[in-house]
Amino acid sequence: MTKIDATNYSITVRHGDFGGELCFEAKVKELPDLAEYADSWQEAYELALDAIDTTATLLAEQGRDMPLPASGVEDYSGRVTLRVPRTLHRSLALMAEDEGVSLNQLMVSALADFRGFSAGAVAQWRVVPVTQAPAKNPARQR
Fold it and tell me: From 17, 42, 55, 58, which residue has the greatest number of CB atoms within 10 Å?
């Protein structure tokens, strides 16, 4: 059996309330059923590494293949060809011109902003009570 390097796997660690307890949760993208919980980020990460090694050993004993680590950034060129409607192309080109940047820079910025938004969207949202009603917008009333 070839020894795997558990650090090549995609491990995410986050702090939160899990089952009524504040702790750190470590998950492995390539092993979606695997989750480890600990009192510190480092401990959760180390438990995940150990769980990856244990999973690889158990699967090998059963004659099954261990999922491979997700592709690294070096497997991507950074070049994407994208077809958009002409009206959107024109709109983006004009916006880039107005901002004094290239169309490529504008689109990279927009995609980076969206990626940041999507990363925030998976966060655990909490309801914050409003202490006073927001002012009504007269323009919206008819």
Answer: 55
Q: Where are the beta strands (DSSP E) in the chain?
A: 11-18, 21-28, 31-38
How is the chain split among helix, strand and coil, in percent rounded to 5?
A: 45, 15, 40
CA distance between the termini of the chain: 73
Task: Return the bridge partners of 31, or none.
Answer: 28
Dump pLDDT digits (tens) for 85-117: 999 999 999 999 999 999 999 998 888 888 776
Considering the four listed CATH numbers 1.20.1050, 1.10.150, 1.10.1220, 1.10.10, the one that applies to the domain covering 77-121 is 1.10.1220
What distance in Å separates the CA atoms of residue 35 and residue 15, rounded to the nearest whole number? 13
Closest of 38, 57, 55, 58 to residue 47, by C-alpha: 38
Full-model pTM: 0.56
d(CA 38, CA 15): 10
pLDDT band per the 50, 70, 90 thresholds, residue 80: confident
